[in-house]
Specification:
Shape: globular
Largest sheet: 8 strands, parallel
Number of domains: 1
Strand content: 15-25%
Number of strands: 10
Structural class: alpha/beta
CATH topology: TIM Barrel
CATH superfamily: Aldolase class I
Strand order of the largest sheet: 2-1-10-7-6-5-4-3
Helix content: 40-55%
Order of helices and strands: HEHEHHEHEEHHEHEHEEEHH
């Protein structure tokens, strides 16, 4: 099954637009686990078990694992997700951006070692940095386009000679000549709903991964209104995956953290669905 089909199936099965980000910080773990990096798998697996029927995707951020020498725990976690929630795709948030044989190795890392269903990439080095990942035709590739951080404007909002802004050019390429195999999606931040709408205009059917709702303050209603598009038959034409991490992971610092994570995820899922135009 292609990644796009996985997303559409998960959206329909779970009636959800919510992507649960897995950014484990041992210093924030509950109770006796606090500060213990050996519990990263246990903490994240508990979150997955509590939210797997509410999510359209899970998005582990590789740096939170690598910083604690916990790559083996990341491998176990993705295996766990595939076992308990086989209908929910896993997006490895790695933001790789190299070319040639190095990019080939990163693709092996994401899709063969970790068995992720999709990966995030930086397109700064052009199509050369994307092409090696296209050798995996059932996988998804999300290109950074208009990110949620304030400094993103330093480059992404710069005008080109054509009059387009850089992020608009990336969106146009991703929806056109770069999307040779139909695997591409875009990362756009919830903190810029007007830019989400512009990206959606340029890329009407590409999946959009949208971080920034929750702890970063993005408006859930405005995000959905700007990005989600229904087709003529009522099915999703332009899917979105609205990511929340800290507001779900750390909804409670007590032993009820998994239950609290479920409550937070459920509330956000309802809010996102209610905003559909």
């Amino acid at each position: 099954m292609s990644f796009i089909s996985q997303i559409l199936q998960a959206e329909q099965a779970h009636h959800s637009l919510l992507c649960v980000g897995l950014d484990p910080e041992p210093a924030k773990f509950p109770g006796a686990w606090r500060g213990d990096a050996s519990r990263i798998f246990d903490f994240c697996a508990a979150i997955v078990d509590a939210t797997q029927d509410l999510a359209i995707a899970f998005k582990p951020q590789i740096a939170y694992f690598a910083a604690h020498r916990a790559e083996d725990q990341l491998e176990r976690l993705i295996q766990h997700i595939h076992r308990v929630a086989p209908q929910v795709p896993v997006i490895l948030d790695a933001k790789r951006g190299d070319i040639g044989s190095t990019a080939e190795q990163y693709a092996i890392e994401a899709f063969e070692r970790y068995q992720a269903d999709a990966v995030t990439l930086s397109p700064f080095m052009g199509f050369d940095s994307i092409e090696p990942y296209l050798a995996y035709p059932d996988k998804g590739i999300f290109l950074l386009c208009r990110t949620s951080n304030p400094g993103g404007s330093d480059l992404q909002a710069q005008p080109l000679a054509s009059g387009e802004l850089l992020f608009e050019h990336v969106a146009r390429l991703a929806a056109g000549p770069w999307n040779r195999t139909g695997q591409l999606g875009l990362v756009v931040g919830a903190t810029y709903p007007d830019e989400i709408a512009r990206v959606r205009e340029l890329a009407p059917t590409l999946p959009l991964l949208i971080p920034g709702v929750g702890a970063q303050g993005g408006d859930a209603h405005a995000t959905v209104r700007a990005g989600w598009v229904a087709g003529a038959s009522g099915d999703t034409q332009g899917p979105i995956l609205v990511n929340a991490s800290r507001s779900i992971l750390y909804a409670s610092s007590g032993d009820d953290f998994a239950q609290a994570a479920r409550q937070s995820a459920s509330a956000l899922r309802v809010e996102l669905n209610a905003a559909k135009p």
